[in-house]
Structures are given as structure tokens and as C-alpha cells.
Design a protein that fits this description.
Elements lengths: L1 E5 L2 E5 L5 H7 L23 E4 L4 E3 L10 E3 L3 H15 L13 H8 L15 E2 L5 E4 L8 H10 L4 E4 L6 E4 L15 H5 L5 E3 L10 E6 L8 E7 L2 E7 L12 H5 L14 E4 L2 E4 L2 H19 L4 E4 L6 H14 L5 E2 L7 H11 L16 E5 L3 H4 L1 H12 L3 E5 L12 E3 L6 H14 L5 H7 E2 L1 H8 L4 H8 L3 H13 L3 E5 L1 H4 L4 H14 L10 E3 L6 H6 L6 E2 L3 E2 H12 L11 H10 L4 E5 L3 H4 L3 H9 L3 E6 L4 H6 L2 E4 L8 E4 L4 E5 L12 H11 L11 H11 L16 E2 L24 E2 L18 E6 L16 H4 L5 E3 L1 H7 L6 E6 L3 E8 L7 E5 L27 E7 L1
Helix pairs in contact: 7-25, 8-25, 8-26, 9-18, 12-15, 12-16, 12-18, 15-16, 21-23
Length: about 900
């Protein structure tokens, strides 16, 4: 600790603390304009100047606190200088404050009695009111450059540029006449940091100061960003990032910060409904629940527990998913329970569990700043996990090495040492060749292999034929590129692997992840800070939904059914069925053949999300009872459901989510539930009571549900609500005094002392090109929209990304005689869809890319029903198609 005296008060602060931080710890409000805790201190505005003993003046934001310092913060000379500086800055500032709450600069002017001069700036300043979320009026700029610095240092987008010097200094966009014409990703960081209203969040315009701010967790991707939600007159009006959040550290993406209008959308389904011959009819909760209870009991009586299925939700809380699987097993007596992890990250969980013993990320996001290198495979973090993507980008800009393996030239590929634009479906071949090349170049960690792994000699023999030349021919990349990728990854010590759905949604999804684990083991990067193998989970709680037991062969804690059933029988006071349950993909087939009679889909638009939509429609149409529970009358409900239950959004309830790094975080109610909507857990409990299980589902709040979860989930027993009130904890966390686990497998693996290399041979996809279908279509998400578009499609994000597109290489478009903006017909063996074309140089010839967010386009009419051989996950990433002029 460092001891110093500030304004005659003794203060102690940790070593390395700046004087400004020390002043704030002492409760002193020293003015600043250029400072933001998220940025490197610059000392440019000079408002935070303080006087040291002896009369020397220093900027407090750039000066470290030192032992024995004596500091004065508000001498007459300092205050006079501050006023003079503000007067100079205010000369060209508009007289009128911008709409909304007073800006920090306006408060400083009031504090020092300074009136804006209103003189025009020269040259004319940028103004832009065309963006749906941001308003620009650079007449209000005071050249603090915080917008430039936060865009560079935090987001890494470099949108804002400083031009000229002195009184001709101006801040412009990198390109285009307005924000939408620039490279801006609409993260809002510039508006968040701007002290003057030169860049303003549109949500604050013409609004008073919000009545309440509530801390909660973002409902979009699995990064787990925390935010403060402002509410005024019962409506969400603004979202800001939490500065103390361990994951996002004061940053948010466009979805987290701005895409919340869906909560108040006029399309929200706010009443229970039953389908009649005349269409949907609003009914009371009692009527809807009684209808479902009778229907389920009738199916159980006639066809048995195996004829009913339940689907949990990656958008629901841990507590709600726990109750969904408990309902299936206790009320229905069936292990037919699953969730959307089946079709996205099921292969990840299976592979990591088989190889290391735990089906989750080995490391933490904070290891990004510790890593010397990254291998990003089948993931596009800057679009799909933007906060993680920005952190990786910043690490690479600071000197870390990067390998990207992806069919497209994603944004991170532009920063990479090596980009392997592989042919879709060849992941396993390429990763085996990378491993072969690591051995060939003598880059394996022999000591680690000797002490912590098994099966190495057999693995080496297996890899022998997998030369870079062989894989290069299969994947359409160069052998030297594969060797270079092996060098970059293996020589970076430590190095992190990140993968996404481009790895898992293949016929060999599970084997692909096993190959990535092999690379980490081969280089000694498991159990090491800054290393590991880390899946980027797609939805906010996809890790939690499966982990809470929405999986036919596992109970809560992802513990195998056969070993955990007795424990849960003791907790629940009811028998746990031992009969094998069906996965979601198996339920779909059982519905098609008539053996699955009833399905309850919670927060999951299965029709729009499933591949081969025509086949899915046939299956759903055959159900005797389909219950859909969601915020909106989604495509599944609209076309096939018999009963609809209106659910509350995450902003309308309490609970927890589990992010990609195993962190359990609080979700808090910000507003009261709208209309007749209820939280998912209340609906489940009420239906259970209707079916005679009131005692087993008698919870007075979500904390009681979570405490029951902790009884059965030993690795989460120490994660109480009290402990995660201010910050989440990562499991394993086995007791109330356990700090949580940021790094898995440090000394031993969950599976045992040694991890075994798994030999996964390459098996080509059956989805191959022909003369009739000459292109390979790859599908995925984009920055501004999310999954089925249920939420983002009902926000102003639809202005930033209006619909799905078919992205095609320029040469292919020229050959077909089609241009950007033209509508084309895409035809596969399974169906067809109409999409606007976008010619894109990031696409490799012979391949295509399309998003799947717009139900009007319905891209999944095209996609293949092929599945991962081990888990049943669908092969969304490879479909043979042809393209025709519409």
C-alpha cells in the first residue's frame, strides 16, 4: 500500500494507483473531461491538475500515487485555471444544452459559472440524425478525443478520425457521409463516453432522468455481458454497460445496448390462446392450463410417457430450465427432454466431456489478455460475440499471434498471421494435418505429453498419413498455409483456441472439437492460463439450459442419468425414470412416424430454426398436442401450435444465466411483466399443480428453486444468490468459501490424471456438389440480427440489417450475370428460398453464405438434415445448392 496526504487527509491506496483514482477513493470530485476509466490516461484536458508539495502541478490522471506525497486539489490557482480552461472550451459550444439529462460538460460549466459562447466552429462540423440509435452534432465537440480513443482502444473499429490541428481540428468518420456509411458497428461506446452530447444516444432525447436503474445480464449471446437498465414510466428507455462487470468491463455491443424494444413491441403475445376452427382465441390462464393438463394426461394414459416431449430454452434462466426437465421427469415420467444445445453445442459438450471430463470451456475470458496467440476455428467473434471479438482483436493489435480457420474472410482474418479459407466440411482433415505439422516441425510440448497425456504413440501413428499436402487437396488451401498455422499456434505460449458453430454444426462436429482438444494437449495448452479450448456459446443461456438437465441422458450439473438418478429421487421425493429418453432430433422423427404425440416447446422456434423445414413441418403437423411458450406468436406457434402460453422476457423476472466461461450471473427484474404474461417458471409450476404435483413444484421464488439446484449440483453448491449479488462466480464452486474456478484441469483432468488423444479420421460430408447443385452453402448469424430474429427483428436493428442476404464471390456472380441487390432463387435438394444477392469479396469461389434471421426468407427451407454422428446436431454449415435469377 502507498500512504499519501490529500488536502490534509491521510489516504492509503494500492501501489500502482493514479492520483486521480486516489482522489476518487477519498471521495473528492476533481473535474475531468478527457478521462474515462476504460481508456489509457492522456492528461490532455488539464482539468484534473493538482498541486504537489513544493508547488509543482501535475495531471492527476497520469501521475502515479507515491509514498509520502502531499497533494492539494482545489487551491485558488487550480480553480482559476480550471475556469479559464472551461471558458476557452465553451467559446464555440452551443448555448442550448442537448435534449435529455444535463451532460457532464454542462454540469462543469454550471459548477464554474461559465456560459457557452455559441461561436460557430470552423470548418463546418459533422451532423448526422439518420442513425436509429446515435445522433451526431460535432458543434458540441470539445476535442477531448474520447470517442476516437474508445473506438480505437476498446472496440478496435477505428471509425472516428482526427483531422487537422489547432482551431481547425475536427473529428470525422473513416468513410461515408454518415454513420451508416462508415465502418461503425453501432456499439454506442462513443456516445457512452462523450461528455458533451456531440455524440448522443437517441434513447435519452427528450427524456427526463430515468426513475430506476437495475443491474442485469444481457439476453443475447453467451458472452454474459452485464448492464444497467433504465426504466421510466414502466418502460425500458436506456441500457448502459456495467463498468465493474468482469466479462464486458464497461462495454456492450449493438444488441446488448440498443436491441431491447422487442419487450414493448406491439406484436408481443400477452394473453394465453387456444386455437379454434376460427383461429386463435384469447382465453384465461385457467382455461389454457386446464386444456394442456387434460391433453397431456390423455396422451400419457393412451400412449405412455415415451409419447410426450419437453424442450427447454436457451433464452430462459437456469432455474426455469431446471424446472422444465424436472417437469418432464417427475410429472410426465419421461426423459424426453432436450433443448437447442442439441443442434448447436451438443458436439462441444460431448467432445470436451469425452476428452477432458467436463463439457465446458477450460479457461476464462480474462485469459484473452494473458494469451500470446489464438486459434479461432469456425467462429466469427466480432459479429456473433462482439465483446469477446473486440478483446481478441485488441490482444492481436498489442502483439498476440492469430490463426483463423474459416471458409470466409471474417473480420479477424484481416488481422491474422494465417487465414485458412477451408472448403466447408473439411475441418477434421485440416486439424489432423495441423497436428501432423506440429509434430513434423518439432513443436510439440514433449514434457507435457509425457506427464499428462495417454495414447500419444498411437496418435502419432494415426497422424502419419495426414500430411499437409493431403489435407490441402481436400480443403482447397495450401500445404504451406497449414504448416504456417501449426507454427504460429504452437510457438505462441500460451495460446487459446476459440471455436463456434462453424466447428460443431457438421456431420463430424464432435470429432472436430476432439481434434481441437488434441492440438491443445499436443502443445501443453490445457490447464494453463492464457490457453485452453473454449467454445463461444451461441445464446445467452445455452450452456445453462443443457447443464440444468434439459438433456435426455443427463440431470442437473450435466451428471449422467444413471449415476445421479438416486440423488434426485431423494431431493424430489419422486422416482426418476431410467428409460432412455429421446433427443430433440429423435423426437422429430418420432413425431413424423406417429409415436411422439405431444410436445411442449419453451422459448424455441423449432420450425424456423430447424433445417429441412419442409420435413419439420410434416412432423409438427402430426402432433396431437403442441404447446408453444414464448414472447411472440412465433412461426412454430403460428402454423402448428394448439395452445400458446405468453412468457415474460428476462427483463421481467429474476433468476440466473450461465455464460460461455461457466460463470453464473444474476438476472434481475427491471419492469413488471406485461399483460397476462408470466415467467417460464411460474407457468411450469402452475401446470404441474394442475396435473397433481403441486407439492413437488411449490416454490415461493426463484431463489428457492436455485437452492434446490445447489443440493443436487455439487460443483455449484457454493454459488448462492448472496455471493453473486455483485459479481458472478465460475463453477466448479463447491462450497460457500470456495472462490470459484477460473481455470479447469490445472493439475489433473476431470476425467483423471491423464487425457487421452482421440484419433478422429476424416469422413467427407455426404452433401456434395454436382452439376445440378454446384455451390456449397454455409449459413450463420450476423452482427445486427440474432438467431430466428424473434427479438432483434422487432427493434431498430432491422434498420441496420433489413433482411437476410446470399453472399457470393465476385467471379461467381459475374459468371451467373447477377449483381448485388438482385433477388435470386436458391434451390437445394430439400427446398428453395428467395434472397437478395450481396457480392462479397470475403467469400471463396464455389461457396455461398446466407443468414437465417428473417422468417419471410426462411433460409432453413434449404439446409441439409444431415447430422453429427454422435450427438445428432444438424449439419447447417454444408448444403449443396444452385442459384438462379428469380
Amino acid at each position: 500500500m502507498v500512504s499519501l496526504v490529500i488536502d490534509d487527509r491521510s489516504v492509503q491506496v494500492p501501489e500502482g494507483t493514479t492520483l486521480l483514482q486516489a482522489l476518487r477513493r477519498a471521495g473528492l470530485d476533481v473535474p475531468t473531461l478527457c478521462h474515462d476509466d476504460r481508456l489509457k490516461p492522456s492528461g490532455a484536458c488539464r482539468l484534473c491538475m493538482v498541486e504537489l508539495e513544493g508547488g509543482r502541478e501535475v495531471s492527476s490522471c497520469t501521475t502515479p500515487a507515491a509514498e509520502g506525497m502531499r497533494v492539494r486539489t482545489a487551491t485558488p490557482g487550480l480553480e482559476s485555471q480550471r475556469k479559464l480552461m472551461l471558458q476557452l472550451l465553451a467559446e464555440t459550444h452551443p448555448v442550448e444544452e442537448p435534449p435529455g439529462p444535463k451532460t457532464p460538460f454542462g454540469k462543469l460549466l454550471d459548477r464554474y459559472g461559465v456560459t457557452p459562447g455559441g461561436k460557430p466552429r470552423r470548418p463546418a462540423s459533422l451532423k448526422d440524425a439518420t442513425h436509429p440509435y446515435l445522433r451526431i452534432d460535432m458543434d458540441r465537440c470539445v476535442d477531448c478525443f474520447r470517442c476516437v480513443r474508445i473506438c480505437d482502444e476498446v472496440q478496435g473499429q477505428f471509425v472516428w478520425r482526427v483531422w487537422n490541428r489547432g482551431d481547425r481540428t475536427e473529428i470525422r468518420l473513416d468513410q461515408g457521409a454518415n454513420l451508416q456509411g462508415s465502418s461503425c458497428v453501432s456499439c454506442g461506446a462513443c456516445a457512452d463516453t462523450c461528455p458533451t452530447g456531440a455524440i448522443l444516444d437517441q434513447h435519452v432525447l427528450d427524456r427526463d432522468t430515468p426513475a430506476t436503474w437495475t443491474r442485469t445480464t444481457c439476453p443475447y449471446c453467451g458472452t454474459g455481458c452485464e448492464m444497467d437498465v433504465a426504466v421510466q414510466n414502466g418502460q425500458i428507455v436506456q441500457v448502459r454497460p456495467r463498468m465493474d462487470a468482469p466479462v464486458n468491463k464497461g462495454h456492450l455491443c449493438v444488441k446488448g445496448r440498443y436491441a431491447h424494444a422487442f419487450v414493448h413491441s406491439s406484436e408481443r403475445a400477452l394473453h394465453p390462446m387456444i386455437r379454434t376452427e376460427a383461429g386463435w382465441k384469447n382465453v384465461t390462464w385457467d382455461e389454457a392450463l386446464d386444456t394442456v393438463a387434460r391433453g397431456l394426461q390423455g396422451v400419457l394414459s393412451e400412449s405412455g410417457p415415451g409419447s410426450v416431449g419437453v424442450l427447454g430454452s436457451a433464452r430462459a434462466t437456469n432455474e426455469e430450465n431446471y424446472l422444465a426437465q424436472k417437469f418432464a421427469r417427475v410429472v410426465l415420467g419421461s426423459n424426453n427432454v432436450d433443448c437447442c444445445a442439441r443442434v448447436c453445442h451438443g458436439p462441444t459438450a460431448a467432445a470436451l466431456k469425452a476428452t477432458l471430463g467436463t463439457g465446458a470451456a477450460t479457461n476464462s475470458f480474462d485469459d484473452i489478455e494473458r494469451a500470446c496467440g489464438f486459434l479461432v476455428c469456425g467462429a466469427n467473434p466480432t459479429e456473433n460475440h462482439p465483446i469477446v471479438g473486440a478483446r481478441i482483436k485488441q490482444a492481436v493489435l498489442a502483439g498476440a499471434r492469430l490463426v483463423v480457420i474459416d471458409p470466409r474472410e471474417i473480420e479477424l482474418a484481416r488481422y491474422a498471421d494465417v487465414h485458412l479459407p477451408i472448403r466447408p466440411g473439411t475441418n477434421v482433415a485440416v486439424l489432423n494435418a495441423v497436428a501432423n505439422s506440429i509434430l513434423e516441425q518439432g513443436l510439440a510440448d514433449e514434457a507435457y505429453i509425457r506427464t499428462r497425456t495417454a495414447g500419444f504413440e498411437e496418435y502419432v501413428a494415426f497422424l502419419e498419413p495426414w500430411t499437409p499436402e493431403r489435407a490441402a487437396d481436400l480443403a482447397g488451401v495450401s500445404a504451406e498455409g497449414i504448416r504456417q498455422a501449426a507454427r504460429v499456434y504452437a510457438e505462441a505460449d500460451p495460446a487459446m483456441i476459440f471455436h463456434g458453430l462453424g466447428m460443431t454444426e457438421h456431420r463430424q462436429g464432435t470429432e472436430g472439437v476432439e481434434c481441437l482438444v488434441n492440438l491443445a494437449l499436443l502443445t501443453g495448452n490445457v490447464g494453463k492460463p492464457g490457453g485452453g479450448e473454449n467454445p463461444l456459446r451461441g445464446q445467452n443461456n445455452v450452456q445453462g439450459s443443457a447443464h440444468m438437465g434439459c438433456e435426455p441422458s443427463h440431470l442437473a450439473g450435466y451428471t449422467p442419468l444413471e449415476s445421479a438418478a438416486a440423488l434426485y429421487e431423494e431431493i424430489w421425493g419422486r422416482p426418476v425414470p431410467r428409460e432412455r429418453g429421446m433427443t430433440w432430433t429423435e423426437m422429430l422423427e418420432a413425431s413424423h412416424d406417429g409415436s411422439l404425440k405431444a410436445l411442449w416447446a419453451i422459448g424455441y422456434d423449432v420450425y424456423l430454426s430447424n433445417p429441412d423445414a419442409n420435413r419439420t413441418a410434416e412432423s409438427l403437423r402430426k402432433l396431437d398436442l403442441l404447446v408453444v411458450q414464448d414472447l411472440f406468436l412465433n412461426e412454430t406457434a403460428r402454423d402448428f401450435a394448439h395452445v400458446f402460453f405468453p412468457a415474460s422476457s428476462s427483463f421481467e423476472k429474476d433468476g440466473t444465466f450461465m455464460n460461455s466461461e461457466r460463470r453464473v450471473q444474476r438476472v434481475r427484474k427491471c419492469i413488471e411483466p406485461l399483460g397476462d404474461s408470466l415467467s417460464d417458471w411460474e407457468i411450469i409450476c402452475t401446470l404441474a399443480a394442475k396435473m397433481g404435483f403441486a407439492k413437488e413444484f411449490d416454490y415461493h421464488d426463484v431463489r428457492a428453486i436455485w437452492n434446490e439446484v445447489r443440493k443436487g449440483w455439487k460443483a455449484g453448491a457454493g454459488i448462492s444468490y448472496e455471493r453473486i449479488e455483485s459479481q458472478g462466480l465460475q463453477w466448479p464452486c463447491t462450497s460457500e468459501d470456495h472462490p470459484g474456478t477460473t481455470l479447469l484441469h490445472e493439475k489433473t483432468f476431470s476425467i483423471g490424471e491423464r487425457a487421452t488423444f482421440i484419433r478422429s479420421d476424416y469422413l467427407p460430408t455426404t452433401e456434395t456438389t454436382t452439376e445440378a447443385f454446384p455451390f456449397l452453402l454455409n449459413t450463420g448469424r450476423t452482427l445486427f440480427q440474432f438467431n430466428a430474429g424473434t427479438m432483434t427483428g422487432r427493434t431498430s436493428n432491422a434498420v441496420l440489417r433489413r433482411t437476410d442476404t446470399l453472399d457470393m464471390a465476385p467471379g461467381d456472380a459475374e459468371t451467373l450475370g447477377i449483381r448485388t441487390g438482385e433477388t435470386v432463387r436458391v434451390v437445394s435438394r430439400y427446398g428453395e428460398a428467395l434472397l437478395p444477392l450481396r457480392v462479397d469479396e470475403s467469400i471463396q469461389p464455389g461457396t455461398l453464405f446466407a443468414t437465417f434471421h428473417d422468417p419471410k426468407v426462411f433460409t432453413n427451407r434449404l439446409t441439409s438434415p444431415n447430422r453429427d454422428r454422435q450427438t445428432g446436431a444438424f449439419e447447417y454449415k454444408v448444403t449443396a445448392v444452385r442459384v438462379e435469377k428469380a
